[in-house]
Amino acid sequence: MPSFGLRHRRAWASLLSQLLRPSGLVCIREVHFHSQVSEAVITSQLKPHQEKSNFIIKTPKGTRDLSPQQMVIREKILDMVVGCFKRHGAKRLDTPAFELKEMLTEKYGEDSGLIYDLKDQGGELLSLRYDLTVPFARYLAMNKVKRMKRYHVGKVWRRESPTIVQGRYREFCQCDFDIAGQFDPMIPDAECLKIMCEILSGLQLGDFLIKANRDCSCFEGKHMDKGLGLFPLSSQVNDRRILDGMLAVCGVPESKFHAICSSIDKLDKISWNDVRHEMVAKKGLAPEVADRIGDYVQCHGGVSLIEEMLQDSRLSQNKQALEGLGDLKLLFEYLTLFGIAEKISFDLSLARGLDYYTGVIYEAVLLQTPAQSEESLNVGSVAAGGRYDGLVGMFDPKGHKVPCVGLSIGVERIFTILEQRIKTSGQKIRTTETQVFVATPQKNFLHERLKLISELWDAGIKAELLYKNNPKLLTQLHYCEHMGIPLVVIIGEQELKEGVIKLRSVASREEVAIKRESLVTEIQKRLSES
Amino acid sequence: MPSFGLRHRRAWASLLSQLLRPSGLVCIREVHFHSQVSEAVITSQLKPHQEKSNFIIKTPKGTRDLSPQQMVIREKILDMVVGCFKRHGAKRLDTPAFELKEMLTEKYGEDSGLIYDLKDQGGELLSLRYDLTVPFARYLAMNKVKRMKRYHVGKVWRRESPTIVQGRYREFCQCDFDIAGQFDPMIPDAECLKIMCEILSGLQLGDFLIKANRDCSCFEGKHMDKGLGLFPLSSQVNDRRILDGMLAVCGVPESKFHAICSSIDKLDKISWNDVRHEMVAKKGLAPEVADRIGDYVQCHGGVSLIEEMLQDSRLSQNKQALEGLGDLKLLFEYLTLFGIAEKISFDLSLARGLDYYTGVIYEAVLLQTPAQSEESLNVGSVAAGGRYDGLVGMFDPKGHKVPCVGLSIGVERIFTILEQRIKTSGQKIRTTETQVFVATPQKNFLHERLKLISELWDAGIKAELLYKNNPKLLTQLHYCEHMGIPLVVIIGEQELKEGVIKLRSVASREEVAIKRESLVTEIQKRLSES
User: Fold this and answer.
1) CA–CA gap between residue B126 and residue B103 (Å, rounded)
2) Potential cystine with B435: which of B84, B270, B281, B462 (Cβ 3.0-4.6 Å)?
3) Residues of chain B neighbouring A33 (CB-CB closer than 8 A)
4) pLDDT grade, residue A379 (50/70/90)?
5) Residue A131 is nearest to which of B6, B160, B397, comparing CB atoms?
6) Interchain pair B4, A53: CB under 8 A
7) What are the two backbone dihedrals, phi and then psi, of residue A528, each rounded to the nearest 5 degrees?
């Protein structure tokens, strides 16, 4: 950081105009994208001093600026999420936005193509991080940390085709909480689910959706099958060992596990009949094997379903499945003690992250309501996670494992929903926290205003004034009403003569005269009362 | 954000071992860096199942992870800085980490080579942002915003040769505050300087350096010439119009302004004699012209120096210089009302950002002390800024201007200094905020502990327990002492029978029995008292 700000303005403005042809139809962006001609060549070919009327100014595809209004909502969500992570004793960690490319290689399977690589500018090969989990595992292995409860809030980047209406972006914020270390079974796992519940109920996403979900008939697909009733926030749990065991006992050859799982994964988008058709017609599964799978993956429920599966004649013969079911039973015991068992549904179709996770997996899905959009939309997971006991070992030179379990909150989707809700409600959002405005009714009072506001700032009071030598009083008062500033301090000739200041409440329009020397104390008193 | 966590584990682990030659001397990083051979080729050439003992795991050059201890310090700095920005009524803005490449083109002059470009993966050409100022100007122009007071905290990236001891990184955090809009002269400019002073004194960087600066003789260069005495935090102000005017009246041909300014800019690193030599021998300036410049650039002072310059026979004949001096005089008038005039030094040698800034420029420099490092170091600017009235117009299709003035706080250098200070003091930093620990002296009390801690969490109390079925009491109490947790809640057979809970203060080791149902209230009372 050798210098702040910007240097060397140079010929940007003139280059801009030079780049535009007489026709005015070629914009800079197009020149860069399609021709890759060097600047020198373009400059010499094009006539100077054209108007830059076709210059398109925008953010990169799939990204956006967050306006002050949006930042207020975003900050509220993050405060809530981070507050919960701290309540559970997590430490904060930060990692660079990019990693050595090979740190990310072979971690994301078919999604690897979505990783943003940096240009090779004669140094290391770098990629923007794709999530916060791999950097965490890299940190643990690099620093030989065997035990850690950490949270991480940061942006991640994925080159997806953005569907912005659904809250999908190429740059988005994630909030991760993870517990690394060898502990007794299912205690950290249960805490992760507790955290997910605390955050999702704290954000009152449920309330929001309850209202709009009265007309249940407009929802389709597996979510309505689940009998979630009026609670459209669906939290599912499964275990990859149960999935593997289930596929094995149904008669799926191990070579087809991966393909069949990716079919099962589609059950939140298409019907069982379509999934079955894909398994048989495209993936060559015997119809009776597919039907056996169908019996399982359409099951969902609580502890009683786990008990049922433990008694299941086929499944109970599979060692892996038995282990997974035993752990899930223990997990539900803990979830009951936490008072959240009824919020979690055991779902044999939950197949997410199969290749990566090693034990329990979970996902919270929000259903977008018809009130918000033309058609009923599944806005996808707002929180998800699971146990990944093998990832740290992939980074460790000797393969030493550090078992981990964690969760990730999808801030972007939650943000989209809350922003929509605030828009609908017409609620006004304050974008500043200013408490006091310093005004004057007379001309030539800038010096007094500056002295006054400086005192307020030095006392820690949030204060503003207009950057005008002689602003009108009405303009100043309008500004306060517009910005939601509660108090106005007014100084004029009369006040200066009497050694007082007028303190005005913007809401009630009441004014009182206060001794100049007691002003800060009086304001602090008023602010602590409100 | 289609899925959370990771998918498709695949053959990373096996690839790792395959990549290592029998000799064990080739690490993955080297293979990637130097050969660029496709994975398939490497895999087929190398023998599988080698130990991965030479796998080097690290963060990219010039970047670092921030540990929980470091994050606590970082967060404290950011809270302080953001608190000040909010006190001055700023709104928060966020922009993407990368911009369309052409948005950054021709903005940074000779530093453009330091911009990180993203790889062309068949889409737009993108670059990581180099600062927060250009994205702000782009935002204003894109949204046709004519007036805005905003702050922005975020990472920026520069491909510099990192000198980590001086707190220079390729990824670093900046905190920017800017005021955009057409206002009466110097009022926003003065507020920016007030903010810089509030932040730098709030962080107590001065105190820190005062102590170590008693031996002034070990400092060299222009900073000691300034007579800053015991205050090694030097805040300088200048105006590019004064600089231009000064060069003109000294007889520098306009074609040499840029070259001569970059020589003047070196005065914080080399002596006037060396700078003069460079001007004459390398840049072909007449010796008498250089001497005239020397008379000016070695000047520094307050209002009296401005008055002196206004009377200067040569300078007062230059319109630009007169304008600049007039504005600076007004600025110092406001700085006096803000009570900070004596903290700012008018310095004719301050030439930073010359090509970019259009008016007042300022920079706060900290001098590293010999106590912290082997030799006396100028750790460079910790805060800087100025007026840039032309930048927004460079983005606007019709060139509409929005005058701006702002400042940037260099968090990384401040962080380096504070971290060093904490290390030296031996001060212990708590990395969690846990208030209560839930413990048991007996076996088989996991269920009771889970019920209890769940109650605490639901009441908003920050609580932890050990993830063990049967932890030893001593282990639990040691954990509290180690982590600085103030309260312990203890439940055992006796307490369960009597319907009470023991509440223990870790510091005093006092224990009191409390009715189970009053536990939350009692804890909240204790916490509000402390």
Assistant:
1) 9
2) B462
3) 124-125
4) low
5) B6
6) no
7) -75, -25
CB-based contact A52 B397, cutoff 8 Å: yes
Q: Note whether B469 contacts A184, CB cutoff 8 Å.
A: yes
Residues of chain A contacting B183 with CB distance shorter than 8 Å: 467-468
ipTM (interface pTM): 0.84
Q: Do A150 and B68 touch (CB under 8 A)?
A: yes
What is the SS3 assignment for B467-498?
A: CCCCCCHHHHHHHHHHHCCCEEEECCHHHHHH
Beta strands in B181-285 (DSSP E): 233-239
Which chain B residue lies closest to A128 (C-alpha atoms)? B118
pLDDT > 70 in chain B, percent:
80
Nearest CB partner across the interface for A71, out of B7, B93, B160: B93
Distance, CA of A381 to CA of A365 (rounded, Å): 4
Cβ within 8 Å, pair A393-B9: no
pLDDT band at B224 (very low <50, low <70, confident <90, very high): very low
Structure tokens at A396: 């460790």
First to last CA, chain B: 43
DSSP B291-343: HHHHHHHT-EESHHHHHHHHH-TTGGG-HHHHHHHHHHHHHHHHHHHTT-GGG
H helix or E strand, kind and range, residue B367: strand B360-368
Euclidean distance between CA atoms B129 and B121, whole angstroms: 18
If you measure CA to CA, which chain A residue comes closest to B104? Answer: A12
pLDDT digits (tens, 9 = 90+) for B452-477: 999 999 999 999 999 999 999 999 99
| Contact: A171, B63; criterion CB under 8 Å | no
Query: The tokens 């800079």 sit on which residue?
Result: A28
* Tokens 């707190």 found at: B167
The residue of A165, A171, A467 whose CB has the most chain B CBs within 10 angstroms, and thus the best one to mutate to test that interface, is: A467
* CA A10 – CA A6 distance, rounded (Å): 11
pTM score, two decimals?
Answer: 0.84
A352 with B58: Cβ contact below 8 A: no
A460: closest chain B residue by CA: B87
Which residues, 6+ apart, have CB-to-CB distance to A160 below 8 Å?
A: A62, A114, A168, A170, B2
Taking an 8 Å cut-off on Cβ atoms, the answer to whether A4 and B354 are in contact is no
Chain B positions in Cβ-Cβ contact with residue A65 (cut-off 8 Å): 93-96, 135, 139, 142-143
**Residue A435 distance to chain B (closest CA, Å):** 9
Best mutation target among B25, B56, B437, B467 (most A Cβ atoms within 10 Å) is: B467
Q: Of B194, B162, B160, B155, give the one whose Cα is nearest residue B176.
A: B155
Name residue, tokens 């008292």: B529
State the nearest Cα–Cα gap between B332 and chain A, in angstroms.
Answer: 12
In Å, how far is B440's CA from the nearest CA of chain A? Answer: 16
Contact between B413 and A1 using a beta-carbon 8 Å cutoff: yes
| Nearest-by-Cβ selection for A29 from B68, B102, B460 | B102
pLDDT of residue B206: 56
**From CA A101, how far away is CA A126, in angstroms rounded?**
5
Distance CA B184, CA A468 (A): 5
Q: What is the 3-state secondary structure (H, E, C) of A69-117?
A: HHHHHHHHHHHHHHHHHHHCCCEECECCCEEEHHHHCCCCHHHHHHCCE
What are the residues whose beta carbons fall under 8 Å from the beta carbon of A127, sequence distance 6 or more? A98, A99, A100, A101, A103, A104, A115, A116, A117, A118
pLDDT digits (tens, 9 = 90+) for B25-81: 222 222 232 333 233 222 223 333 344 445 689 999 999 999 999 999 999 999 999
Q: Tell me which DSSP letter residue A458 carries.
A: H
pLDDT at A47: 32
Any idea which residue has 């950490």 for tokens?
A: A150
In three-state secondary structure terms, B522 is: helix
